[in-house]
Input
Amino acid sequence: QRLRWKVELIETLEDRMSLEAIPLPRKVNLSAVEDFEYRKVRVTGRFRHDQELLLGPRTRGDGQPGYFIITPFERENGSKILVRRGWVPRDKREQSTRLAGLTEGEVTVEGLLRSGEQKASSFVPENVPSKNQWYSLDLVEMAKLSDAQPVVVEMLLDTPAHLIKYELIDKDIPVGRSPVVELRNHHKEYIVT
Output
């Protein structure tokens, strides 16, 4: 029964992800965010790199350590949201090492609306906002710090996997999220054991 629920949830999220992007409302109804989880949205504004937040350390699929870059995004209407721009290797943590990836001026961003993430485990250290040390994605605290709405849009990866190193990492550009639903589904493992 739980397996069926999980499979149906994944199918629902994949269906949402396959829909065309919609404009994100000026004021996001926080009680409705879960209903739009994994929905593609489009927003126009400018990145506030001076308020950048680093989430990590986190590894990519190849085990390389690095950080997710979360940047407040000031919209044309004056409201702010958070944009999870992507992952950078540990040696690109400092902005001065990835100047090419600091997009300036007005841009339109398309990504997945997300309601956050659960803390991975009790072994994950507590966040230290005063030092910009974020080990878990705490949207409420991050939004408070940057005067943004507590929602995050995850930028999508539009570069083929075999070109990520050459097109993004080597050019100091954060690696966005793969356009797939990522939920842990251990039910097959449980059946075997």
DSSP finds four helices and seven strands in the chain. The chain has one domain: 2-192. The longest strand covers residues 65-75.
